[in-house]
Every structure is written in structure tokens, then in C-alpha cells.
Amino acid sequence: MNILDKERKLKSLLTQLETMEDDILIVSIKQKIEDYKHTAMTNLTAWDRVLLARHQNRPTAKDYINYMCDSFIELHGDRLYRDDGSIIGGIGEIDGIVVTIIAEQKGKTVDENITRNFAMPHPEGYRKALRLMQQAEKFNRPIVTLIDTPGAYPGIGAEERGQGEAIAKNLYEMSHLKVPIIALVIGEGGSGGALALGVADQILMLENAIYSILSPEGYASILWKDASKASAAAESMKLTSYDLEELSIIDGIIKEPIGGAHYNPTQTFEKTKQTIIKELLALKSIKQSDLLQKRYQKYRKIGFFQRFNYDNLGGIKR
Amino acid sequence: MNELVKAFETRKKEAKKAKYLKVKQNYKHAVDVPKGLYEKCPKCKETVNMTHMKKTLFTCKHCNEHFRMRAVDRIRLTVDSGSFVEKGLGFITLNPLFNEGYDEKIKSYQERTKLDEAYIYGYGEILGNPCVIGVMDSYFLMGSMGSVVGEKVTKSFEYAIYKQLPIIIFTASGGARMQEGIFSLMQMAKTSAAVKQHSNQGLLYISVLTHPTTGGVTASFATLGDIILAEPGALIGFAGPRVIEQTINETLPEGFQRSEFLLEKGFIDQIVDRKEMKQTLSQLLHYHKKVMG
Could you tell me if residue A12 is inside a domain? Predict the structure, then answer.
């Protein structure tokens, strides 16, 4: 029974509640709902979190921006080819701090999803992001990126315009941008498409967001030749926020209400806002050269391996 | 006395046999198609003599198809003989996600390729021009980039910074290594940051894209070279052709994602034939030689 089935059951309980008229019964059903929320909908499996991260009602980047920013002006286009709808970028003010915000935007309706390309960016999207980030560097604005993508778009046009090069350039430049960068994974963090906005001083994740090298379905079909084992793959891939914090890939987790962000969006937005303000103030106080050094070291030390001490050997002739 | 001679003779025979086997074994993994002495070229279907591969630089003598080659052979063909000193030894690949069968897989590849990982680097000289040279080996788990490969690539850039030398990297990889999950993904950021550090020192980085260069390697250090060269007919791209076909539901045009296609689209500087590679590289290194003082 995964989280979506549980949601359905909760919904049926809630509809029962509406038709009820007897006061005593209402109290007992209400108690039942609370109990159910606290027993069944906590302790989620990795696959549950995958489903929540992709949930249809999950708040998208724009919802976060609208809540967090007192004002926001969107800026379009990469100045080279066209404007990519799957990435939105612009300047906003969060509690008096002016920041550049770049976000991957999923659509809520079918039509919107087509213009947003299901949040799968083309190279021009990444180039727009880079243009705005370099602009932020020029005017000494901190950068906040919101990550929510299944991955970079695999298509003919994307390849023709250099998808790989666009992502690589982002990683390359972001590692050395002279302003603080905060990356926040709000939903799916899919592969290179997510990482291209994810080189930051602070990497945060919402509790039920995921961040992985590829989708669990892809992982299962490549390694086990069976895409239906996706839920098992999700367990072993270490893609949840708690796993990634344990591996010290990310720096912090923002808690969500029981059942996921869509049960109480405002609460989630408020928590996110407070965390981002706190991190921004902390990062702003760090000296620029220290900031860059720290960012380099942060990625420099990621890796899981051992090494013999061969220093005395000096090398081998082949 | 007779017995002694006999024993000597059999030993000689055995040695000869062993040598023959060794030769055969050496070429077992040299090319896409090899098994016997003669094999069909996958492109023009002509028969190719596998024992002459080293002389023909692992290309088909009929159609000049560039076969895949092992990292060690690549270094032998590119670097002046005797000048290569391998660095960054002693790394041990671990299994962070406890993936079933991954340890055994690594072990079997190590035995087959005689390498400890899919990337080797070191100091070398190309026609007298000193540089750091790194080569990925596509026979080791498709040259995929896990923690160790990422670390070694980063180390090779750091070594080049330390020695103030230009760096040349031959890429051949299927992308990030799925078995190591998020660690592999983060290697993309790590290696790209290392390229930036090297570049900030005003040093030259030449990347040579060989067949195949895809996925996470294309989207990190492979496409960040100051000068990007490619071998003819190499598959270079971000998403694999099969993934694209499944997404858009149509077959891809001929020559899509090949080096000629990328040259046309403006993503590589030049396609260089394997015969001229050494000459071209030494020329480029010569142009960027730092004048002391």
C-alpha cells in the first residue's frame, strides 16, 4: 500500500465526515482520521517519497516564489536562441534582501505542461539561467535556485544545440560565481538537469523531495533489466532527503506537513522562506574568497572510495 | 641426456605456445569485434588483420574506421616512448549503495583490462612537449565515471596546476556510473570545478572526444576544453540515441550525434585523424608554451 492509496483512504474518511450528522460519530471519525494520519502517513518509504515528489497537487516553483517574494520581476530569454519555458528566472525581494531566483517550473494543467515542457529544460534554458546568474554576480545579488525537474530534455533539438555543453558550462561557472548561491530541491531532482542549477554553497531539500542520478524506473531497467522494480530501486538508490543528509551531500532538510507539502502549502512556504532568509544572512557574512574556497572544497571532498598511500612510490613507468 | 633434451624441447614449445596465447589475449579486448586473427570491420565489412592493429593505429585500412582502443595503447601511441609516468595510483572502488554484484563486476573488469579503474593519468611528453595526459578506457565498465574516476580526473587537474602544465584528456565514456548513484552525479560538479581552477591559472586544457563520449562526461569536463578535438565518426552527445528515440518516437537520422554532426553544429574545434593526432597535439602544446621570465 503506497502513499497514494493511503491518500485515497483518507479522502474516503473525509467524505464520510461530511455526510455525518451525529456529533458523537463525528468526534470518533475525526479521532480516526488523526490517528490514521499519524500512524500510516508518517514513516514513509523511499518509493512513497518519490510519489509525493511527483504528486500532481504538489506546489510548484511559482507558488514558492509568489509566497516568498514581496515582489518579483521575471526576466526572459538566453539572448542566443529563444526563451525556455521550463526555467523561470528573475529578480525578487525576500524580506528586504534582493536576490536572483532561478527555478525549474512544472505545469499544473496539460496546456501549461506543454509550454513548460514538463520542466525538462533545453540548452537555452540553462543558458538563460547562466546569463541571469552572471548578471547577479555583476550586481552582487545572492542567487536562489529552486530545483524540480525529471531531467534535461533528451531530444534532437536539444542535442543539436549542445545539451551537454550547456550543463557543463553551468557547473563550470557556478563553481566560481562570486555571490552566495542557495539551491533548494522542492520536488524531483533528476540527474544532470537538476545539478546544472545545483552547484551551491548551501544545498537544501524539502523533506519529501528526491535527488538522484536518474529515475528509479531508469535505474531498475538499466541495472536489473526490469523497469517494474522501480520501488525496490528507489529504496536502494539513497535518493531521499534523509539519506542524502546522512551521506552529507546536502546541508539541510525543510520539514513538510504530514502527508506532503500539498496538505498545508502555506506552512511549507513559510518554513522555506524562514530557512532561506536565515541561510542568506549567514552566507552574506562570509568573506568572498572564503566562500569560493568553501564551495570548491564542498564538492572536492564528495566521493566514496579508499586509497593506499603510494606517495613514496612516485609513479609507475608504462 | 636424451630426456634432458626432450624436456628442453617441450619447454620451448610451451613457451612458444604461451607467447602465442598471450598475443591472442592481448588483442582480445583491443577492438569491438575481435576474436580471431581476422575480423570483419563493422563499417565496411572488409576483413581486417587484427595482429597488425598496432601498425594501423587501430583503424580499418580499407575505410579508415577508427576502432575503440585501450587506454594503455592510446598512451603508447600518443606519448614519446619512455616518457610516461603514471600518477594517482592505489585507489580502491567501493560499493556505496551496496549494489548486488557490483564488487564482482569491478573485479572481473580489473582482471580483464589490467587497470584498477576506467581512467589513467600521468606525466608525459608529446614530441618533446611536456604535459599531463589522461585517458579514459571504454573497456572498463564503458568508461563510466564513479567516485574513483571523478577523483582521479580532479587529481589530474590538480597535478597539472601543481606542475603548471597543460593537460590533455582523451574521453571515452558512457557517462556517470549508475551503480554509485548520487556520488557519481556529484563527480560532474567536482570535475567541472577542477577544470575551472586549472583554467584560472591560465593553463591550457585540450579535450579529445573519442568514441563514445556521452552522458555525464559530456555534460562535465569533456566539453569544457579550451580546445576540443574529436576523432572521426565518434558518437558524442548528452542523451543516448536509444533514449532519444524512445522519447520522440521516431528513428534518428544517419550520422546524428557523430563528430561530423557536432563540427557542423559548432561544438568542436576540429576532427583529427588518428594518424595526425600526435602531430596536432604537439603543435598545439608548442603554441601554448609558457615563456619563462
Answer: yes
Residue type, A140: N
CB atoms within 10 A of CB B200: 10
- Asked if A95 contacts A273 with a C-beta cutoff of 8 angstroms, the reply is yes
Residue B258, phi then psi, degrees to nearest 5: -90, 165
A93 and A234 share a domain?
A: yes
* ipTM of the complex in this document: 0.91
Q: Which residues of A touch B179 (CB under 8 A)?
A: 223
Domains of chain B: 69-292 (3.90.226.10)
Q: How far is CA B209 from the centre of its chain?
A: 9
Does pTM top 0.90 for this prediction?
no
Number of domains in chain A: 2
Residues 6+ apart with CB under 8 A from A133: A100, A102, A143, A173, A174, A177, A181
* Residues of chain B with C-beta less than 8 angstroms from the C-beta of A183: none
Residues A28, A177 within the same domain: no
C-alpha cell at A87: 526555467
- From chain A residues 29-58, the ones with a CB under 8 A of any chain B CB are none
Q: Say whether both A135 and A233 belong to one domain.
A: yes
Q: What is the DSSP letter of B114?
A: S
- pLDDT per residue as tens digits for the range A31-76: 888 887 787 778 888 999 999 999 989 999 999 999 999 999 999 9
**CA dist., res. A172 & res. A297, Å (int):** 14
**A155 to chain B: which residues are within 8 Å by CB?**
239, 244, 247-248
Partner residue facing A313 (CB), from B89, B96, B184: B89
Residue A4: which residues within 8 A CB-CB, separation 6 or more?
A51
Mutate to test the interface with B, among A137, A213, A223, A302 (most CBs of B within 10 A): A213
Average pLDDT in chain A: 89
**Chain B contact for A209 (CB, 8 A cutoff):** no
A29 and A70 share one domain? no
Q: In angstroms, what separates the C-alpha of B210 from chain A's closest C-alpha?
A: 15
What is the domain range of residue A19? 3-43
- pLDDT (tens digit, 9 = 90+) per residue, A6-35? 888 888 888 877 777 777 878 887 888 888
